[in-house]
Amino acid sequence: MNGQAAPRWQAHCEALYRQHAARLVRLGRLVLGDQPEAEEVAQEVFLKLIRTYEGPVVPIDWAAWLTRVTINACRDRRRAGWWAWSRRHRAPEMLELVDGGASPEQAAAGAEFGVLIAAAFQRLSARQREVFALRYIEGMSTHEVAGTLDLSEGSVKRHLFRAVKYLRGALGEIKGDRGHR
Amino acid sequence: MKRCLSERTMWLVHEGAAPERDLAHLEGCLDCTARYGRLNEELGEITRALRDHASPIGRDVRRGRRRWVTAAAVLAGIGLLAGGEAVLWRQSKALVDPRLETTAEALSLLEEVTLLLSSPGVTAASVLVADPATVIAEMTSPESYEDDPIAAGGGRL
Question: Are A30 and A121 in contact (CB under 8 A)?
Fold first, then answer.
């Protein structure tokens, strides 16, 4: 790479980082349910971006490329042995009882609403989490989600509807519990 | 009156994928309109909560992993200690036991040699060349005491 191209390349990568880093960390956090892991995934993705930038084939739509690579990196993490072990051995009640150790008063005040919804979200299947996060958090269309995840649109809709149904049920339970306190 | 929309159809309306007749029903049915409003509201709540949530769940995963790593390290330490102890024990056994055996054998050999050399009819050369069994038989036979003045009573006053 010559002296003139390097600053342009760096500037573009930095711009992409500023534009997408927070979004990718959030996506990873939702899919994996783990903030530090999500941050590591985002770092991996941006390292890949640099390598891809230097490669012969450069993507046209960097945003879509970054999303796809993030999802794939999350899947790789999930397939790792330690990950499966830690997920299996994590007591479900730990999720429901709120890891932050908030007092019942805080929970009653609504401080833990997000945690409870996130806990319900983590009980969805990995595919449902991916589909939901891309459609409702990232704001992709069903067609785009299908393209990113290599699924048919029908399959995306099925996963999405199940996820929505489950989360609405969980929301109802959370609201019901809070109403009884 | 047409039947009210199912949950799935309602959601398809939200996704913009419902057929015209379902949209027409939604516009004319107060019950379905209220349900549709609830769907929109709830989806908005869920999405906002997930978007803003700071994910303390991750800490739990980390803590679980740290516990696992600690347990593995402790187990490995115990295994290493036990292994090292076993090796040391084997080495000490190998050093002590053979020495004891060797000492006992050497003592009994020295005893035999002393006995042989102290007997008067037996010279050191004969001990070295003769068969030990023969030599011992000679030593223990009564004839072997005949030349010995002490054994033969010659030493008595």
Answer: yes
